[in-house]
Amino acid sequence: MAKETKKTPQDESKKQDQLKNYQKDHTGKPLTTNQGMKVNDTNNSLKSGERGSTLLEDFLLREKITSFDHERIPERIVHARGSAAHGVFELYEAIPEYTKAGIFNDTSRKTPVFVRFSTVAGSKGSPDLARDVRGFATKFYTEEGTWDLVGNNMPIFFIQDAMKFPDLIHSVKPEPNNEIPQAASAHDTFYDFVSHTPETLHNHIWVMSDRAIPRSLRMMEGFGIHTFRMINDKGEAHFVKFHWKPILGVHSVTWEEAVKINGADADFHRRDLWDAIEDGQFPEWELGLQIVPEADEHKFDFDLLDPTKLIPEEMVPVKIVGKMTLNKNPENFFAETEQVAFLPGHIVPGLDFTNDPLLQGRLFSYRDTQLSRLGGPNFDQIPINRPVAESHNNQRDGHMQTNVPKGNTAYFPNSMSGGCPHLSKMSEGAFHSYEERIDAKKIRGRSESFNDHFSQPALFYRSLSEWEQAHVADAYTFELGKCNQAHIKSRMLYLINEIDGDLAKKVADGLGMEVPKNIDQPVNQAIGADADVEKHQPRKKKNYLDKSTALSQAETKFDSISTRKVAVLAADGFDHNNYEKMRKALEKKGAKLMIIAPHGGEITCNENKKHAVDAAIATTESVLFDAVYIPGGEKSVKALLKVAKFTKFVNEAFKYCKAVAADNEGEELIDNSAVADHKSDKAVFVNAKPDDFKKAIAQHRNWERMKVAETIAV
Ligand code: HDD
């Protein structure tokens, strides 16, 4: 029996009410054809005799198989792999001085949202922990129409002009002759492109950082990337950049873990998001704005229209204006997560675009792609895509029209329908494009103000902590180590050297190569054949800010263990007292303890109570947890020592710098592991207070352990 549907607070939104009209509940219902005719056999086709051939007449067979044959639609050309959830956006304070958009003026509103997170390069079935940018697309169902903020978890993009997007994507996707590698940038064609397109270097160094391998979708930032406009009711404009700041802070796994997680649980991020919402631990982000007066457009060392540049928060602080909470999983993956269509062109009065050439191209691409992906122009009638604001216009017909428009007019102006649907004045809430003054020659080219490709990658690298920098060097070494073409690696080393000499040296050492002193200049092939190549050479890096703390994960929040997963290694006879003390202390703060035992089912503690096993050791891996705890109990620990994977479990937790704790006899497992020589480590605890363990888990990792960890084989 399906669960009884109760109306919970997260079901109460205009969007949820609307979606309910389209939901189908099969509970207690007879199986029918699409036409509603009852069926008495869905297991056997119609045959000419018991052992005879199947008849063409079998309309039941044909309906069932035809539907099955067409279950798949083309996957997204980028961002194919994704997971989504419903939620709500609430405004903290009205900002009428910047925008007239209702969503930014009415603090009593709970605007329904649907958010889809994604990786970029891999196919729909690719593993979650690929080293990649993460998509962060938010659909706000506002009362004035739908607004889509289609961003990423990095504040900049690879290229400056939409014209280059197919080249970028073709270079990173599996190579066209053999369709290798899947969901990976570590191959020649990508680096061939990057090494010839220095504008990619800023986004690329972010991809080499830990930002590209998040611990959870709930622990990453989001960015609208482009500079947009906000328009107030006087028609005045401000530039704005959008930021999502996760309440849980920004945390990542290490590359080695990512590789293992992909094998142990390819759905790691998808499952984590789903489970958190099912457990009522709703993911939250605050929305921040960087606002720049129009008058300050040219006051920066970079161009605000260049999507490969961020505005350091030290230069323009992020003003927090509201909070988004994801509180409901989709009812159906295909109907909602797969069929949702985000369009950067979906904006509402009070917001507008700028001339960022990447944004301008996106305004075309996203509507266009839905035509083949969702089959025609009526994709906005699919329930997940329907606005909650009423829509009326004279667009008609086409594949899968599901509305039944009444009347005999489908044109404007008309008198036969009383002029309806009628136009609205701006004072009645109509959209009006910002009247930007334009006086220019029509050219195919790029502004010289877009030519600085090294200053911001260098700022990013300088802003990272030592452990983050080490991860970046390792990532470049791994990625280039997977390339076969020496000239491509050499060009990359030359360009990395322009960002940071020390970084280039480390990567070159790892590759067993020299940093080249000269290569043919990094000719910017982003410009056309007739352009003045000299004029478009990338500039040497500038230093307009030494460090930006917001760029480093070492500066994020470390105050919560909420939703952290702690593996409890235990077998029959484990110490109930130890376990309960730890469980209560950690669960009170939102962590999830999971018992990992030699077998599934149940185990019995030293007080003869039965405890459900969350996973048998054979079915799980250390990399799927944030910390490890071993309670005492002589019999239990003896059993754990007999299975080598428990010792490996501890070794791996230690290697990946996680907190490890043991009580009483549990120490014997530590003594049997690589941790034995490191009991004084600040995140290793023997018979310590649960509170100390808790603080270490909140720290995410003890990165000071990295050098020691390198020596541990697992
Ligand atoms: Fe894009 C999907 C983000 C540049 C063309 N993009 C897509 C999605 C995200 C982004 C999050 C997935 C949406 C979903 O979950 O359905 N894309 C970005 C960002 C960009 C960007 C942050 C730069 C700032 N994209 C970009 C360019 C083009 C596209 C320059 C083409 C000229 N993107 C697409 C697309 C997709 C898409 C092919 C695939 C599926 C879809 O649109 O609906 O049209």
From TrEMBL:
<dbReference type="Pfam" id="PF00199">
    <property type="entry name" value="Catalase"/>
</dbReference>
<feature type="region of interest" description="Disordered">
    <location>
        <begin position="1"/>
        <end position="50"/>
    </location>
</feature>
<dbReference type="GO" id="GO:0046872">
    <property type="term" value="F:metal ion binding"/>
</dbReference>
<comment type="function">
    <text>Decomposes hydrogen peroxide into water and oxygen; serves to protect cells from the toxic effects of hydrogen peroxide.</text>
</comment>
<feature type="binding site">
    <location>
        <position position="116"/>
    </location>
    <ligand>
        <name>heme</name>
    </ligand>
</feature>
<dbReference type="InterPro" id="IPR011614">
    <property type="entry name" value="Catalase_core"/>
</dbReference>
<dbReference type="GO" id="GO:0004096">
    <property type="term" value="F:catalase activity"/>
</dbReference>
<dbReference type="InterPro" id="IPR020835">
    <property type="entry name" value="Catalase_sf"/>
</dbReference>
<feature type="binding site">
    <location>
        <position position="373"/>
    </location>
    <ligand>
        <name>heme</name>
    </ligand>
</feature>
<feature type="binding site">
    <location>
        <position position="76"/>
    </location>
    <ligand>
        <name>heme</name>
    </ligand>
</feature>
<dbReference type="GO" id="GO:0006979">
    <property type="term" value="P:response to oxidative stress"/>
</dbReference>
<keyword id="KW-0408">Iron</keyword>
<keyword id="KW-0349">Heme</keyword>
<feature type="binding site" description="axial binding residue">
    <location>
        <position position="366"/>
    </location>
    <ligand>
        <name>heme</name>
    </ligand>
</feature>
<dbReference type="Pfam" id="PF06628">
    <property type="entry name" value="Catalase-rel"/>
</dbReference>
<keyword id="KW-0560">Oxidoreductase</keyword>
<feature type="compositionally biased region" description="Polar residues">
    <location>
        <begin position="30"/>
        <end position="47"/>
    </location>
</feature>
<dbReference type="InterPro" id="IPR043156">
    <property type="entry name" value="Catalase_clade2_helical"/>
</dbReference>
<dbReference type="InterPro" id="IPR024708">
    <property type="entry name" value="Catalase_AS"/>
</dbReference>
<feature type="compositionally biased region" description="Basic and acidic residues">
    <location>
        <begin position="1"/>
        <end position="28"/>
    </location>
</feature>
<keyword id="KW-0376">Hydrogen peroxide</keyword>
<keyword id="KW-0575">Peroxidase</keyword>
<dbReference type="InterPro" id="IPR010582">
    <property type="entry name" value="Catalase_immune_responsive"/>
</dbReference>
<feature type="active site">
    <location>
        <position position="79"/>
    </location>
</feature>
<dbReference type="InterPro" id="IPR029062">
    <property type="entry name" value="Class_I_gatase-like"/>
</dbReference>
<dbReference type="Pfam" id="PF18011">
    <property type="entry name" value="Catalase_C"/>
</dbReference>
<comment type="similarity">
    <text>Belongs to the catalase family. HPII subfamily.</text>
</comment>
<dbReference type="GO" id="GO:0020037">
    <property type="term" value="F:heme binding"/>
</dbReference>
<feature type="binding site">
    <location>
        <position position="362"/>
    </location>
    <ligand>
        <name>heme</name>
    </ligand>
</feature>
<feature type="domain" description="Catalase core">
    <location>
        <begin position="32"/>
        <end position="420"/>
    </location>
</feature>
<keyword id="KW-0479">Metal-binding</keyword>
<dbReference type="InterPro" id="IPR024712">
    <property type="entry name" value="Catalase_clade2"/>
</dbReference>
<dbReference type="GO" id="GO:0042744">
    <property type="term" value="P:hydrogen peroxide catabolic process"/>
</dbReference>
<dbReference type="InterPro" id="IPR018028">
    <property type="entry name" value="Catalase"/>
</dbReference>
<feature type="binding site">
    <location>
        <position position="165"/>
    </location>
    <ligand>
        <name>heme</name>
    </ligand>
</feature>
<dbReference type="InterPro" id="IPR041399">
    <property type="entry name" value="Catalase_large_C"/>
</dbReference>
<feature type="active site">
    <location>
        <position position="152"/>
    </location>
</feature>
<protein>
    <recommendedName>
        <fullName>Catalase</fullName>
        <ecNumber>1.11.1.6</ecNumber>
    </recommendedName>
</protein>
<dbReference type="GO" id="GO:0005829">
    <property type="term" value="C:cytosol"/>
</dbReference>
<dbReference type="InterPro" id="IPR002226">
    <property type="entry name" value="Catalase_haem_BS"/>
</dbReference>
